[in-house]
Amino acid sequence: MMKHKEIEGLIQKRLDREITRDEEVFLFKHLEGCPDCQKYYLEMEGIKNGIAGLIEFLPRMDFNKQVLAKIGIKRQKVWQRLVPVFIGLYLASLIILILLFSSLVNYLSSKMLLSIPFVLHTFDKIRSVGNGIMLLTSSFLKLSLPQIFIGFLLCLLTFYAFIRIVNLNQKNHSHARA
Length: 178
Prior knowledge:
Layout: H1 4-15, H2 21-33, H3 35-52, H4 63-71, H5 78-100, H6 104-114, H7 116-141, H8 145-177
Helix pairs in contact: 1-2, 1-3, 2-3, 5-8, 6-7
């Protein structure tokens, strides 16, 4: 004899219209002799019929706008959230460029190799820079993936334009010296 859990599975299959003819015959034969399963079947069928009779509710088109207005939240435009991130990325790329093209890198590396206190001081500075990077990263978490991608592309374009300008200035200076 089948366990009641298996009968409940057959009841669910019948309600979902996934039951085979043999399973259905077996189910109804069991229901004739088991009042507990019969009660469960009638309850489940009542729930299914109740759900089928529900009316689907669709809110008006301006529902979200009204809710946001009632709770006092103004919806920000994408560019209003993207501009601070873009500025931050732009400034970070400028700092990286300045560090890469300056003699500061050689100076810092020579100091770090010669002085343990300097290394500790540098790690303190790196930690504070890391905290700033974490703040910048947290602003990314508020953006959707397409917004982050657009900001990244804009930063790349700006970085490319900056490098082109630097290269043009270097060529003009080398022609002026010659």
